[in-house]
Write a structure and sequence with these properties.
166 residues; alpha+beta; four-stranded antiparallel sheet; globular; binds flavin mononucleotide
Amino acid sequence: MNTIDNRRSIRSFKDKKVESEKIEKLLRAAMQAPSAYNQQAWEFIVVENKETLSKLSNMSDYSKPVEKSALTIVVSANEDNLTVPECWQQDLGAATQNLLLEAVEQGLGSVWMAAAPSEDRMEFIKDLFDLPKNIKPYSVIAIGYPQADNKYIDRYVPEKVHYEKW
Ligand SMILES: Cc1cc2nc3c(=O)[nH]c(=O)nc-3n(C[C@H](O)[C@H](O)[C@H](O)COP(=O)(O)O)c2cc1C
């Protein structure tokens, strides 16, 4: 099964540290993403500290997987480096997805939790990490060794494909 088919959101993790070499591979994959005008305006906060993970897991009712993750990465944009500001969320979406796919390659599980566009969630992260004004949190990715194997689900729907015209 290929990497794309094997990726699923994983919300339960083993109590096992992720090796620093693997963490670098995740970050390298994220930074290989396409971006508008190649602006690469992303920044990453890697969190392994249990106390910080516990606090970060309160971002929303749906961010509980963060608490038991081996690490969580907060993907943000640096406004000072945005040459095409209107594309910042698309760029960071591509970086986030690259990171999720590399996690599969590394035998890890992960789940994407949205910070942007929720002002409340973005503010929560800004406060927690005391971020400078120019940093806009985008996604929060909980990562670790998965408790269970991924299950493949075929989501191909031919009716959603329109050839040449609607
Ligand atoms: C923008 C975005 C926000 C998401 N937010 C959350 C979240 O807050 N909590 C969570 O557990 N999963 C979250 N997910 C994961 C989705 O629930 C998941 O991708 C979807 O149910 C499909 O399942 P799969 O990832 O296993 O294929 C989010 C996914 C995306 C792309």
